[in-house]
Write a structure and sequence with these properties.
It is a single chain. The chain is of the alpha/beta class. The chain folds into two domains: about 180 residues, Response regulator (Rossmann fold, 3-Layer(aba) Sandwich); about 140 residues, 3-Layer(aba) Sandwich (Rossmann fold). About 45% of the residues lie in helices and about 20% in strands. It contains twelve helices and twelve strands. The chain has a six-stranded parallel beta sheet, with helices on both faces. Strands 7-6-8-9-10-12 form a six-stranded mixed beta sheet, with helices on both faces. Strand 8, helix 10 and strand 9 form a beta-alpha-beta unit. Helix 4 crosses helix 12 and helix 9 runs parallel beside helix 10.
């Protein structure tokens, strides 16, 4: 009962009402208990081993496809954590909302066990940085994931080298556009994410140097969600009829392909990030030219190690690690993603 309460963030009394089907439990509480039991069941084999417990809260503001990939990658690494026993709780939200993420961070451990660490993907905002400092003062180290939070007390950043990825995208776009006349669209989910801003700035600067006769058009605030992304991209294509290619930083790539079809314009180069199921299908169909990818499971492994270092479970101090970008085409798809 206590494990389920801690995993779900609910009181033991609420969990008891749900488990025994008593009145007074909301539908949201019932869903939270069901999800907690599912998480604990997946992680149960790891809980039987070791002596020290590393309870990690994952707080992520990202489209469900990315948060699902994070969950799968992290849970694949939990069983390999030594000498501790690792367990994860998830607080996932699709839209970028500073107030919501601050509320979650400030509420961690207020009911139930205090986490030993936090993996965080959130907007780069002073209020978020302050919440990280408050966690640090409580002895809870934070590792930022994929996108950094500047001027905060996070112990490490783990994820892609975003500036290098942006430069690589500019180079690929330049080579692929070749003799076609036209410009490049750079689509972010939201400029508040520092990692996305890094990619965009590096791409725009490098593309201007490689292709001084072309221009770039930036769009954001689609949150990587299909319908909002399609609307902002269609609007950009209608306003800038010279756009013939896109570097998608923030996702929603099926909707971006649909936006080009909606206005009847061919897309000469389409670059995106991360080999999730949607992007894999788009790559195989030829809609995507290439995917800029890195190993998310390796990120999880490194992130857990930094939290363990912060608690002196492992030697050394926490350090940041920026992963190299891989350029994936239909002809060099990683073996692990190929169906048997």
């Amino acid at each position: 009962m206590l494990d389920i309460a801690e995993q779900s963030g609910l009181s033991e009394a609420t969990v008891d009402r749900v488990l025994h089907d008593r009145a007074g439990a909301s539908p949201r509480a019932r869903r939270a208990v069901e999800q907690a039991m599912t998480d604990l069941d997946r992680q149960q084999s790891q809980l039987r081993h070791g002596t020290q417990t590393l309870l990690v809260d994952v707080v992520s503001q990202a489209p469900a496809r990315f948060s699902t990939a994070v969950r799968v990658a992290l849970e694949a690494e939990l069983s390999s954590v030594r000498p501790a026993v690792a367990r994860a709780r998830f607080h996932l939200r699709e839209s970028a909302d500073v107030a919501a993420v601050v509320e979650v961070l400030d509420g961690l451990g207020r009911r139930g066990r205090v986490p030993r660490g936090v993996l965080l993907k959130a907007p780069d905002d002073p209020l978020v940085a302050q919440a990280i400092r408050r966690l640090s003062h409580r002895g809870v180290p934070v590792v930022t994931l994929v996108t950094d939070i500047r001027d905060s007390s996070r112990v490490a950043y783990v994820g892609l080298d975003n500036a290098a990825a942006g430069r690589a995208a500019a180079y690929l776009a330049s080579r692929c556009l070749g003799g076609h006349d036209g410009d490049l669209l750079v689509a972010l989910s939201r400029g508040a994410f520092f990692g996305e801003s890094e990619r965009a700035a590096a791409c725009v600067e490098t593309f201007a140097r490689l292709e001084p006769q072309r221009s770039t058009c930036l769009v954001n605030d689609g949150d990587g969600l299909d319908e909002t992304t399609r609307r902002v991209v269609v609007d950009a294509l209608e306003r800038h009829r010279s756009i013939i290619g896109v570097y998608s930083i923030g996702g929603g790539n099926r909707s971006i392909a649909q936006a080009f079809a909606d206005v009847g314009r061919p897309c000469q180069v389409f670059l995106a990030h991360d080999l999730d199921d949607e992007n894999l299908q788009l790559l195989r169909s030829g809609a995507l030219t290439a995917v800029l990818h890195h190993d998310l499971q390796a990120d999880m492994r490194h992130a857990l190690r930094q939290l363990m270092r912060a608690h002196r479970m492992l030697p050394g101090a926490p350090i940041s690690k920026r992963a190299n970008v891989e350029v994936i085409t239909p002809f060099n798809e990683p073996i692990r993603l190929t169906p048997l």
